[in-house]
Amino acid sequence: MNKNLIITLLCSLIVVACGKSNPEKKPDPTPEPQPQKESISFKGTIKPISRATDTGFEAGDAIGVFAVEKTTANVSGKLLSSNYADNVKYIYSNGLFTGATSVIEQPTDKPLMFYKAVYPYSSDLRNEFSFAVGSDQSNSSSYTMSDLMTADTEATTEVTPHLVFSHKLSNIIINLKYEEKPGGSEQMFFNNVLVEAKANINENTFTAFGTTKTVIASGNGNNSFKVILPPQTIAEKVTLITLKVGSKTFTFFPESDFIWKSGMQYTYDVTVSKAGIISFTSSINPWETDN
Length: 291
Known about the structure:
mainly beta
Protein backbone atom coordinates (compact mmCIF):
# COMPACT_ATOMS: atom_id res chain seq x y z
CA MET A 1 0.00 0.00 0.00
CA ASN A 2 1.14 3.52 -0.75
CA LYS A 3 2.98 4.93 2.24
CA ASN A 4 1.33 8.36 1.90
CA LEU A 5 -2.14 6.76 1.79
CA ILE A 6 -1.49 4.87 5.05
CA ILE A 7 -0.43 8.07 6.81
CA THR A 8 -3.57 9.88 5.57
CA LEU A 9 -5.87 7.09 6.85
CA LEU A 10 -4.17 7.10 10.24
CA CYS A 11 -4.66 10.86 10.61
CA SER A 12 -8.35 10.51 9.74
CA LEU A 13 -8.80 7.83 12.41
CA ILE A 14 -7.09 10.00 15.03
CA VAL A 15 -9.43 12.96 14.27
CA VAL A 16 -12.55 10.75 14.52
CA ALA A 17 -11.37 9.23 17.80
CA CYS A 18 -10.70 12.66 19.31
CA GLY A 19 -14.15 13.83 18.26
CA LYS A 20 -15.81 10.85 19.97
CA SER A 21 -13.91 11.41 23.23
CA ASN A 22 -15.19 15.04 23.59
CA PRO A 23 -19.00 15.05 23.20
CA GLU A 24 -20.74 18.45 22.97
CA LYS A 25 -21.41 19.93 26.46
CA LYS A 26 -25.08 20.76 27.19
CA PRO A 27 -25.98 24.07 29.00
CA ASP A 28 -26.99 23.95 32.70
CA PRO A 29 -30.75 23.87 33.33
CA THR A 30 -32.41 27.20 34.29
CA PRO A 31 -32.54 27.48 38.14
CA GLU A 32 -35.98 27.37 39.77
CA PRO A 33 -37.21 30.86 40.89
CA GLN A 34 -37.17 31.29 44.66
CA PRO A 35 -40.41 32.41 46.40
CA GLN A 36 -40.41 36.07 47.45
CA LYS A 37 -41.78 37.55 50.68
CA GLU A 38 -44.76 39.87 50.19
CA SER A 39 -45.24 43.14 52.08
CA ILE A 40 -48.42 43.37 54.17
CA SER A 41 -50.79 46.37 54.05
CA PHE A 42 -54.20 46.77 55.68
CA LYS A 43 -57.68 48.00 54.91
CA GLY A 44 -59.12 49.79 57.94
CA THR A 45 -62.66 50.67 59.00
CA ILE A 46 -64.33 51.56 62.28
CA LYS A 47 -67.33 49.82 63.75
CA PRO A 48 -69.72 51.59 63.84
CA ILE A 49 -68.96 53.56 60.69
CA SER A 50 -68.31 56.82 62.58
CA ARG A 51 -65.27 57.57 64.70
CA ALA A 52 -65.41 59.89 67.70
CA THR A 53 -65.13 63.01 65.56
CA ASP A 54 -65.50 62.03 61.91
CA THR A 55 -66.64 59.38 59.48
CA GLY A 56 -63.48 57.32 59.32
CA PHE A 57 -59.72 57.37 59.34
CA GLU A 58 -57.86 60.40 58.03
CA ALA A 59 -54.55 60.65 56.19
CA GLY A 60 -51.73 60.42 58.70
CA ASP A 61 -53.62 58.41 61.34
CA ALA A 62 -51.22 55.88 62.87
CA ILE A 63 -51.79 52.42 64.37
CA GLY A 64 -49.57 49.77 65.92
CA VAL A 65 -49.87 46.30 64.33
CA PHE A 66 -48.95 42.88 65.74
CA ALA A 67 -48.66 39.67 63.70
CA VAL A 68 -49.10 36.33 65.48
CA GLU A 69 -48.50 33.04 63.68
CA LYS A 70 -51.16 30.35 64.20
CA THR A 71 -49.52 27.26 65.69
CA THR A 72 -50.67 24.15 67.53
CA ALA A 73 -49.53 25.87 70.74
CA ASN A 74 -51.33 29.13 69.91
CA VAL A 75 -54.43 28.32 67.88
CA SER A 76 -56.35 31.43 69.04
CA GLY A 77 -53.68 33.99 68.21
CA LYS A 78 -52.98 35.35 71.69
CA LEU A 79 -50.25 37.96 71.90
CA LEU A 80 -47.08 36.49 73.36
CA SER A 81 -44.02 38.17 74.84
CA SER A 82 -42.48 37.91 71.36
CA ASN A 83 -44.46 37.52 68.13
CA TYR A 84 -43.80 37.35 64.39
CA ALA A 85 -44.14 41.16 64.40
CA ASP A 86 -44.58 43.49 67.38
CA ASN A 87 -46.08 46.99 67.27
CA VAL A 88 -45.12 47.90 63.72
CA LYS A 89 -46.22 51.46 62.95
CA TYR A 90 -48.63 51.78 60.01
CA ILE A 91 -49.92 55.07 58.54
CA TYR A 92 -53.28 55.62 56.82
CA SER A 93 -53.31 57.03 53.28
CA ASN A 94 -55.61 56.60 50.28
CA GLY A 95 -57.76 53.95 51.92
CA LEU A 96 -54.93 51.74 53.23
CA PHE A 97 -52.64 51.45 56.22
CA THR A 98 -49.08 50.97 55.01
CA GLY A 99 -45.79 50.66 56.88
CA ALA A 100 -44.36 53.94 58.16
CA THR A 101 -40.65 53.01 58.16
CA SER A 102 -40.82 49.21 58.02
CA VAL A 103 -43.41 46.65 56.94
CA ILE A 104 -44.60 43.23 58.01
CA GLU A 105 -43.67 40.66 55.37
CA GLN A 106 -45.58 37.45 54.82
CA PRO A 107 -43.28 34.41 55.26
CA THR A 108 -42.48 32.54 52.06
CA ASP A 109 -44.24 29.39 53.28
CA LYS A 110 -47.39 31.47 53.97
CA PRO A 111 -48.51 30.23 57.39
CA LEU A 112 -51.83 31.42 58.78
CA MET A 113 -51.33 34.71 60.60
CA PHE A 114 -53.45 36.67 63.08
CA TYR A 115 -53.19 40.49 62.97
CA LYS A 116 -54.03 42.76 65.89
CA ALA A 117 -53.95 46.56 65.84
CA VAL A 118 -54.31 49.47 68.27
CA TYR A 119 -55.25 53.10 67.59
CA PRO A 120 -53.70 55.54 68.34
CA TYR A 121 -50.11 54.41 67.86
CA SER A 122 -47.68 54.50 70.78
CA SER A 123 -44.21 53.03 71.04
CA ASP A 124 -45.29 51.49 74.38
CA LEU A 125 -48.01 49.23 72.93
CA ARG A 126 -47.97 45.53 73.86
CA ASN A 127 -50.53 43.04 75.19
CA GLU A 128 -50.80 45.04 78.44
CA PHE A 129 -50.31 48.80 78.40
CA SER A 130 -51.68 51.96 80.00
CA PHE A 131 -53.52 54.71 78.14
CA ALA A 132 -54.54 58.23 79.19
CA VAL A 133 -57.23 60.39 77.59
CA GLY A 134 -56.58 64.07 76.93
CA SER A 135 -57.24 66.44 79.82
CA ASP A 136 -58.27 69.24 77.43
CA GLN A 137 -60.56 67.66 74.86
CA SER A 138 -61.84 71.04 73.70
CA ASN A 139 -58.93 70.59 71.30
CA SER A 140 -60.40 68.35 68.58
CA SER A 141 -57.07 66.56 68.07
CA SER A 142 -56.89 65.68 71.78
CA TYR A 143 -60.48 64.39 71.67
CA THR A 144 -59.78 62.19 68.63
CA MET A 145 -56.52 60.84 70.10
CA SER A 146 -58.46 59.89 73.26
CA ASP A 147 -60.54 57.41 71.26
CA LEU A 148 -58.71 54.16 72.08
CA MET A 149 -59.66 51.44 69.57
CA THR A 150 -58.50 47.92 68.79
CA ALA A 151 -58.98 45.51 65.88
CA ASP A 152 -58.08 41.92 65.07
CA THR A 153 -58.44 39.50 62.18
CA GLU A 154 -59.06 35.80 61.85
CA ALA A 155 -56.07 33.65 60.88
CA THR A 156 -55.33 34.52 57.25
CA THR A 157 -52.74 34.40 54.48
CA GLU A 158 -54.02 37.58 52.83
CA VAL A 159 -51.59 40.40 52.19
CA THR A 160 -54.29 43.08 52.60
CA PRO A 161 -56.31 42.00 55.65
CA HIS A 162 -59.31 44.05 56.76
CA LEU A 163 -59.05 45.57 60.24
CA VAL A 164 -62.39 46.49 61.86
CA PHE A 165 -61.82 48.76 64.84
CA SER A 166 -64.02 48.97 67.94
CA HIS A 167 -64.15 51.72 70.58
CA LYS A 168 -62.84 50.60 73.98
CA LEU A 169 -63.57 53.56 76.29
CA SER A 170 -66.80 55.44 77.10
CA ASN A 171 -68.23 58.36 75.14
CA ILE A 172 -70.34 60.83 77.15
CA ILE A 173 -72.61 63.30 75.35
CA ILE A 174 -74.39 66.15 77.17
CA ASN A 175 -77.20 67.94 75.31
CA LEU A 176 -78.19 71.22 76.94
CA LYS A 177 -81.58 72.95 77.01
CA TYR A 178 -82.00 76.31 78.74
CA GLU A 179 -85.21 77.79 80.08
CA GLU A 180 -83.40 81.11 79.84
CA LYS A 181 -79.88 81.00 78.52
CA PRO A 182 -77.37 83.47 79.98
CA GLY A 183 -75.26 85.48 77.59
CA GLY A 184 -71.68 84.47 76.85
CA SER A 185 -69.74 81.45 75.64
CA GLU A 186 -70.18 77.93 77.07
CA GLN A 187 -67.55 75.67 78.57
CA MET A 188 -68.03 72.31 80.29
CA PHE A 189 -65.75 70.52 82.74
CA PHE A 190 -65.94 66.92 83.97
CA ASN A 191 -64.61 66.84 87.53
CA ASN A 192 -63.40 63.95 89.70
CA VAL A 193 -62.99 61.51 86.80
CA LEU A 194 -60.31 58.90 86.17
CA VAL A 195 -58.35 59.56 82.98
CA GLU A 196 -56.06 56.48 82.78
CA ALA A 197 -56.95 52.94 81.71
CA LYS A 198 -55.08 49.65 81.98
CA ALA A 199 -55.57 47.75 78.73
CA ASN A 200 -55.20 44.01 78.14
CA ILE A 201 -55.67 43.06 74.48
CA ASN A 202 -55.84 39.29 75.02
CA GLU A 203 -58.49 39.68 77.72
CA ASN A 204 -60.21 42.61 75.98
CA THR A 205 -60.36 44.54 79.27
CA PHE A 206 -59.93 48.28 79.81
CA THR A 207 -59.96 49.30 83.46
CA ALA A 208 -59.71 52.82 84.89
CA PHE A 209 -57.06 53.51 87.53
CA GLY A 210 -55.03 56.33 89.08
CA THR A 211 -56.12 59.62 90.62
CA THR A 212 -59.13 61.68 89.58
CA LYS A 213 -58.69 64.81 87.51
CA THR A 214 -60.69 67.45 85.64
CA VAL A 215 -61.24 67.12 81.88
CA ILE A 216 -62.43 69.91 79.57
CA ALA A 217 -65.15 68.61 77.25
CA SER A 218 -65.26 69.04 73.48
CA GLY A 219 -67.95 71.07 71.74
CA ASN A 220 -70.50 68.89 69.95
CA GLY A 221 -72.52 71.42 68.01
CA ASN A 222 -75.02 73.91 69.38
CA ASN A 223 -75.63 73.51 73.15
CA SER A 224 -73.93 70.11 73.27
CA PHE A 225 -70.66 68.71 74.64
CA LYS A 226 -68.87 65.37 74.51
CA VAL A 227 -65.97 63.71 76.27
CA ILE A 228 -64.19 60.34 76.10
CA LEU A 229 -63.31 58.74 79.44
CA PRO A 230 -62.13 55.33 80.64
CA PRO A 231 -64.94 53.00 81.81
CA GLN A 232 -65.68 53.83 85.46
CA THR A 233 -68.32 54.42 88.11
CA ILE A 234 -69.15 57.95 89.26
CA ALA A 235 -70.43 57.89 92.83
CA GLU A 236 -73.58 59.77 93.81
CA LYS A 237 -73.25 63.28 95.29
CA VAL A 238 -69.85 63.80 93.65
CA THR A 239 -69.40 67.12 91.84
CA LEU A 240 -69.32 65.70 88.31
CA ILE A 241 -70.02 68.55 85.88
CA THR A 242 -69.26 72.25 85.98
CA LEU A 243 -70.93 74.32 83.26
CA LYS A 244 -69.77 77.88 82.67
CA VAL A 245 -71.91 80.21 80.56
CA GLY A 246 -70.54 83.69 80.39
CA SER A 247 -70.11 84.86 83.98
CA LYS A 248 -72.43 82.19 85.45
CA THR A 249 -71.43 78.73 86.73
CA PHE A 250 -73.68 75.69 87.19
CA THR A 251 -72.75 72.38 88.84
CA PHE A 252 -74.26 68.88 88.76
CA PHE A 253 -74.21 66.18 91.45
CA PRO A 254 -75.50 62.71 90.42
CA GLU A 255 -78.40 61.49 92.57
CA SER A 256 -77.23 57.90 92.02
CA ASP A 257 -74.12 56.15 90.71
CA PHE A 258 -73.28 56.59 87.03
CA ILE A 259 -71.75 53.42 85.54
CA TRP A 260 -69.91 53.89 82.26
CA LYS A 261 -68.85 50.72 80.42
CA SER A 262 -66.29 49.93 77.72
CA GLY A 263 -67.36 50.71 74.15
CA MET A 264 -70.60 52.39 75.19
CA GLN A 265 -71.97 55.83 74.39
CA TYR A 266 -74.10 57.60 76.99
CA THR A 267 -76.35 60.52 76.04
CA TYR A 268 -77.80 62.85 78.66
CA ASP A 269 -80.40 65.54 77.93
CA VAL A 270 -79.87 68.34 80.42
CA THR A 271 -82.33 71.13 81.23
CA VAL A 272 -81.04 74.26 82.95
CA SER A 273 -83.89 76.13 84.63
CA LYS A 274 -84.08 79.85 85.26
CA ALA A 275 -83.04 79.15 88.84
CA GLY A 276 -79.98 77.31 87.57
CA ILE A 277 -81.11 73.81 88.59
CA ILE A 278 -79.88 71.04 86.31
CA SER A 279 -82.00 67.91 85.78
CA PHE A 280 -81.20 64.91 83.61
CA THR A 281 -83.00 62.38 81.49
CA SER A 282 -80.68 59.80 79.99
CA SER A 283 -80.44 57.07 77.42
CA ILE A 284 -77.75 54.52 76.75
CA ASN A 285 -76.78 53.17 73.35
CA PRO A 286 -73.94 50.90 72.38
CA TRP A 287 -71.15 52.92 70.86
CA GLU A 288 -70.64 49.85 68.73
CA THR A 289 -73.86 49.24 66.81
CA ASP A 290 -74.87 46.79 64.13
CA ASN A 291 -75.15 48.06 60.56
